[in-house]
Amino acid sequence: MNFPFYIARRYLFSKKSTHAINVISAISVIGVAVASMALVVTLSVFNGFHDMVANLFTQMDPQLKVTPVKGKTAPADDPILMKIRQLPEVEVATECLEDQALASYQDRQLMVKVKGVQDNFDSLTHIREILDGEGTFELHAADMNYGIPGLGVAYQLGLGYKFDTPLKIYAPKREGQLDMANPTEGFVEDELFSSGVIFSVKQGKYDKNYILTSLQFTRNLFAQDGMLSSLELRLKSGSDFEAVKQQMRQLAGNKYNVLDRYEQQEDTFRIMKIEKFIAYVFLTFILMIACFNIIGSLSMLIIDKKDDVVTLRNLGASDHHITRIFLFEGRMISVIGAVIGIAVGLLLCWIQQQYGVVRLGSSEGAFIVDAYPVSVHPQDIVIILLTVIVVGFLSVWYPVRYFAKRLLS
């Protein structure tokens, strides 16, 4: 058995001659445990919000999205795009074309993004799950084109689930000069009819800006026949996602971007990662402050055990062994506090997941979720455990060596 570790373990759990040392040691363990618990709970709440936002975006975003590197559009029959969509792992491929336009309904106007998609868009995404109204997902019938506005667009334009008069859409003509004497001649005008539904992703990026319609409508509106702004894909179940994405990027070269769901919303998720990292840094500083209690506990223990040190030296223990005893003492306090804190943190996370004890608001339905979302990621627990151990070990290394030389010499 490791001699310094054996002695340190006995010192940790034995009764000291001065009761205050036991109290301070217990406070040290509690301090590390509370900081560890706070790290587990806080990072898990950030994970919960991250996963919740990711689930909201996946209602509209495809698994993979191919967009041109230069310009807004690309030919739909580009050989590179044909090779990508014909990969055996691709189950659904949808051509999309979107651009800015002016929507006008009665006396209201709004700049919107009109996104034209193919009829299989409901097979690509979970669009049917976020529709609300009396109709169904339908983009066109004969020569009539339907528009499915986002909840925010419908509110700003005064639309209901069903709008009686057509929704007028205006887009600037791509060719020719604008005649200021008759500016209306510089725009292409078309109409969208109600399909009886609106969509709600619960994300302002979509709900307040987008109108879904048929691909042919947008191609006519923006004079982009045979063009697309993105090729959106869903893979077959069981496909190696990362391998297929890498294969697509090799095919795309430097002409197209291949983006997964997180990369499509890079700004949002980058901000959330930064917020999580800042919370981790601040809580680590709190952990460092909690570790100062360990230094006080060890310094008092060294004074209390001066007589024992003399006995150990007479038995042949070197100063190195004696120093290691107190180093092990501090490290054990850190590890025990970390284990207790992580265990309590995981218990609190489980309680929140099951019962939603801590709520976001006093009234039901005021937010997307009623209680703080929590998601425990195993890698976070490993990082927290390593952080507590490293901070605890570093915080006691110099003070123990200093006090051991001063008080035991």
Strand content: 15-25%
How many angstroms does the end-to-end distance come to? 27 Å
Question: What strand order characterises the main sheet?
Answer: 3-4-11-7-9-8
Averaged pLDDT = 84
Uncertain runs with pLDDT below 50, 5 residues or more?
A: none
Q: Give the helix level as a range of percent.
A: 40-55%
Shape, principal axes of CA atoms: elongated
Strands, total number:
14
Q: Compute the gyration radius: what is it?
A: 32 Å
- SSE class: alpha+beta
- SSE string, helix = H, strand = E? HHEEHEEHEEEHEEEHEHEEHEHHHHH
Largest sheet: 6 strands, mixed, barrel
The number of distinct helices, counting runs of at least 4 residues, comes to 13
Key words describing this protein structure:
six-stranded mixed beta barrel, two-stranded antiparallel sheet, alpha+beta, 409 residues
Q: What does this protein look like?
A:
This protein is α+β, with helices and mostly antiparallel strands and 409 residues long. Helices cover 51% and strands 19% of the residues. It has helices spanning 3-13, 19-57, 79-85, 121-124, 151-157, 204-207, 215-221, 241-252, 261-264, 266-304, 306-314, 319-355, 378-407, and strands at 64-68, 74-75, 90-105, 108-117, 131-133, 140-141, 144-149, 167-172, 187-194, 197-199, 210-214, 227-228, 230-235, 256-260. The strands form 3 sheets. Strands 3-4-11-7-9-8 form a 6-stranded mixed barrel. The chain has a two-stranded antiparallel sheet with strand order 2-12. Helix 2 runs antiparallel to helix 10 (266-304) and helix 12 (319-355) packs antiparallel against helix 13 (378-407). The longest helix is centred in the first third of the chain and has 39 residues, at 19-57. The mean pLDDT is 84.
